[in-house]
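During the second year of the project, the team shifted from modelling isolated chains to modelling whole assemblies. The rationale, set out in the original proposal, was that interfaces cannot be judged from single-chain predictions alone. As a representative example for this report, we include one of the complexes processed in the last quarter. Its constituent sequences, exactly as entered into the pipeline, are reproduced here:
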Amino acid sequence: MSRPSDYVDAGAPQREESPRGDITQPKLGFVGTLRFVWRQLTSMRTALLLLLLLAIAAVPGSLVPQRSSDPNGVIQYFSDNPSLAPVLDNIQMFDVYGSVWFSSIYLLLFVSLIGCVIPRTKHHFQAMRARPPRTPARLERLGVHRDITLEGGDAGTAIESAHALLKKSGYRTELYQGRNGDVSVSAERGYLRETGNLVFHSALVGMLVTVAVGGGLGYAGQRVVVEGQTFVNTLLDYNSFNPGRFFNPDTLAPYALSLDSFDVEYEQQNLEAYGQPVDFTANVTTRLPGGETEERSIKVNDPLRFEGTDVFLLGNGYAPTITVRDPDGNVVFTDSVPFLPQDANLTSLGVIKIPDGLEQQIGMIGFLYPTAYELETGAYTSTYPDLVFPVLTLNVYSGDLGINDGAPKSVYSLTIDDMTQLTGGDTGVDSIELLPGQSQDLPGGQGTITFENADPDAATTADDDVATADYADSVPRFASFDVHHDPTQGWVLTFAILILGGLLTSLFVPRRRVWIKATDTAEGTVRVEYAGLARGEDPGLAEAVDAIAYRHGTALGLPR
Amino acid sequence: MDLNELSVLSLWSAMAMYALAFIAFALDLAKRSAEVSAVGNEAASADAASVSATATSGGGIATLARADIDAPQVEPKRSAVLRVAVALTVLGFLLQLTATVTRGVAAERVPWANMYEFAMTGTLLIIAVYLAVLVRVDLRFLGTFITGLVLVLLGIAAVNFYVEVVPLPPALQSAWLIIHVFVASLATAFFALGFALSVLQLVQHRRQLIGMDLQRLKLKFLATLPSAERLENLAYRTNIVAFILWTFTLIAGAIWAERAWGRYWGWDTKEVWTFIIWVIYAGYIHARATRGWRGSRSAWLSIIGFTAVMFNFSVVNLFFKGLHAYSGL
Ligand code: HEM
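Output from the structure prediction step:
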């Protein structure tokens, strides 16, 4: 049942280091050395070692955060391990999968693979055109052997029907005349096994090349859109944009996308999961340059495929609308500012920067509690992610925002090095605390700040019924979208399917040789022999030979 | 009693059955050892007799002629306790099936959306695959391993991973949850079987190196098991089925990742480990076709591979940071 020994390394007979190689080694010369190295590189043993090396090399990337998948984790790692991190960084431990050492392993492996597949393909083409081999003189020596004796009839007719039977069963056949007056049919099947193997390995190469090229042709961009806002698919309108090496921004599909509304559904029946989000839906309107509009929806597992791009819903949160006025009542700032969720109940953190219009630059760090609950310490916490009793608290800083030099700064962080804290913390001044629709003075008489109620139907809430008012629509939500364009994705899938198909055929199509031999005996009977030989893993060989013998007997009219 | 309570109750009952089955399988191994001892002693006295016989008559020595090299050295006798063990395993399986189905009905979705449920469905599949294979190939000698493994995994899951039924978070609401996770569990079941066979292959190989002397054999039941070569072939066949399923898991995972996270591959920790496992088993398949790597070395790769599978399921799920934070804990 084991593979015949000739099968080990089959298809690459000249590639194993042969004893002859050792003898000629001293006088290899340059070309000889090259050939020797190539032969080593494309040997099964090297392929195996490189595969195992690849598996080992992939491990560290799961132990140490990677820049590609977890950039914040890397920053955290640097601050947690200030002495170790730079050492690891030197050996590219934070970019394992793009590192020189990881790349060299897989590139070598693929060189080996190509060097292995090409000669095997040639070999296979020849094998497919070759005639099945001569019938061995002594079939009984083969692992699987059956024989029967027919009363009457003759060897010729027996082999004729055997021939027809094997052909019908998908075997390639050849008739042979033996030396002892016997006739036989030699048959082989399962060429698809090797074909599958070659398809599999070639598709691996195809996959690698496509992924390498695909990364260069496409792009990925991120954009945060607040309800009611519109995003235009241009370079300027993205919050961040990562083009591939060969991507030309002029080819960005011209369209616009408005976030009409963002719906969230929370679990309210099951107390074990109370408040857990069960659905996010971004209702959007797409608009083409010609003016055609269409209403679509985007969900977490259901991206929008539009104009060659894929728009994914990756995150969401609240974007409170805030207005700041100077002491004369002129609006110096009004915007819906996305606040980043910090926990499951959507306590959200955001930063508001007012560079112009006031006496001094003002920065504010705000917390939004969608359903605020005051702890005994006086601090707030949020107890439910939806807007039941939203409270916005703000700590105000004044001074230099550090944005005058034009260097880009994250909109989600405030550099307070050159600023003075005016409220909260140790200042002795209470933080600003607002419900939707409320306003308050900024410290130092610099102006006023308003937490706008975004619900158009909301009446100005009187102070005494704030606790009972309906705040459901008082704060707009934002959605963060990832926009991708990868023209090679279809190819990647095609190769993946080829890989799977190649594997299936290569591992499960049995390759075997079968012989049926008939000999007229002196007694006037016919001796018919059946034999099989596995070419590769073939647990069903004996059964297959039995089945052929049985069907052949039936065809010859044996009683069943 | 609601459906989920019924599920929990059935699960504990199933574990009780597996525990009993484990004992019965172990008794069977002990019985095999006893039989082998008896045969060994008999052969020894027969040898002694034949030695004196040769001394006098110079006649041939009777050797144990074995037609089929793959057959066990000592054919085990029919065993009632073994049949009881299999029956108990089937009973345990039916109870666990009930537990899994009722959990799914209670949750109104497939019962494999958090670690407790993966463990339940995964071990159910291990038993199912084992019982299905038993119909064709007599692997009853693996019973202690299979029931033992399942018992340990289920015990850990029921005690440490149990979570109440909660609705699916939006990221898991996808048809790919059904396909991807189910096929991964099925692959794991086949890998487990392949692992067990490879371990036995190594043990059996060592025994064959030491020689066929039954009296010197320590683990006597080994003489009733198939040869190392046969075990290797069985392990290979199991592992390639698992490998195909794993390849599918990898591809389906990538398709799902594209839909849910916007990229089909991002070297997330779980993706990394799925890849590592795939590469180890690709190495295993190569090893079987590489001179000098068949036999014990390839068996070690199968063992390392399954260790990685278990690592991926436990440590990676629980302690590694990544997008696949779905243990539910
Ligand atoms: C990226 C690297 C490679 C991977 C992932 C890989 C994977 C695989 C897999 C999964 C199989 C079993 C399925 C099948 O037969 O189609 C296989 C078989 C095979 N591979 Fe590779 N391979 C790689 C590189 C190579 C190289 C470099 C060689 C040549 C030196 C090679 C030669 C073979 C041969 C001869 C078989 C048939 C073995 C058998 O039938 O058991 N492979 N490979």
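Chain B touches chain A through 61 residues (CB under 8 Å). Residues A 11, 42-44, 47, 109, 112-113, 116, 196-197, 200-201, 204, 502-503, 506-507, 536; B 282, 285-286, 288-289 surround protoporphyrin IX containing FE (CB under 6 Å).
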